[in-house]
Specification:
Length: 160
C-alpha cells in the first residue's frame, strides 16, 4: 500500500510546487499521475528503473544537476534547500527515495526541462504523453491512465 493520493498531493506535491513557485493544477495532476504510474504511489520505492516515488535513475539525477540546475544557481539553491543537510553529501541519490519533497522537486524539474506545455489537469492523455516523454519513453499511455484510475481517482473521488 502506498501513500493516499490526496495526502501526497496536499502534504508533498502542492507545497513543493508552491516552494518552487511552479504551482498549478496541471503540475499537481501530472506529478500525482507519475507517482501512481512509476511506483503505485510509493508501494515500492526502489527497483532497477530508479529511486523513489518517481523512479528517477541516478544518471538522470546527476545530469539534471550538471546540465540544468548548474545553469540556474538560485533554483539550484532552492532545490538543495529541500535536501537533508549531511545525508545529501554522503548519498545524494538516496534522497530520491527517502525525501519526498526533494524527489518531487527533481521530478518536476525533469518535466520542466522538457519544455513541453502542460495540458489541462483533467486531460489524462495529455498528462500521459508528458509522463511518457519524461519518464518512460517506451511506456504506453494506457499504463498512465490505468494507474490514475487505480491509484488516484478512487481516493480523490472519495475525499470529496
Amino acid at each position: 500500500m502506498g501513500i493516499a493520493a490526496n495526502e501526497l498531493c496536499r502534504y508533498v506535491i502542492r507545497p513543493t510546487l508552491v516552494y518552487l513557485n511552479r504551482h498549478c493544477a496541471s503540475a499537481e495532476a501530472l506529478l500525482l499521475g507519475t507517482a501512481a504510474c512509476q511506483s503505485a504511489l510509493g508501494s515500492a520505492l526502489h527497483d532497477r528503473r530508479g529511486h523513489g516515488l518517481y523512479r528517477i535513475g541516478e544518471s538522470r539525477h546527476q545530469a539534471l544537476w550538471d546540465d540544468f540546475l548548474a545553469l540556474d544557481p538560485d533554483l539550484a539553491s532552492l532545490v538543495r534547500g529541500l535536501a537533508s543537510q549531511h545525508a545529501f553529501l554522503r548519498g545524494p541519490h538516496l534522497e530520491l527515495t527517502v525525501n519526498l519533497r526533494y524527489s518531487t522537486a527533481i521530478a518536476w524539474l525533469l518535466i520542466e526541462q522538457q519544455r513541453t506545455p502542460l495540458p489541462a489537469a483533467d486531460d489524462l492523455l495529455g498528462l500521459a504523453r508528458i509522463w511518457r516523454q519524461t519518464f518512460q519513453p517506451q511506456g504506453r499511455l494506457r499504463d498512465f491512465t490505468a494507474a490514475w484510475h487505480t491509484c488516484v481517482e478512487p481516493v480523490l473521488s472519495s475525499a470529496t
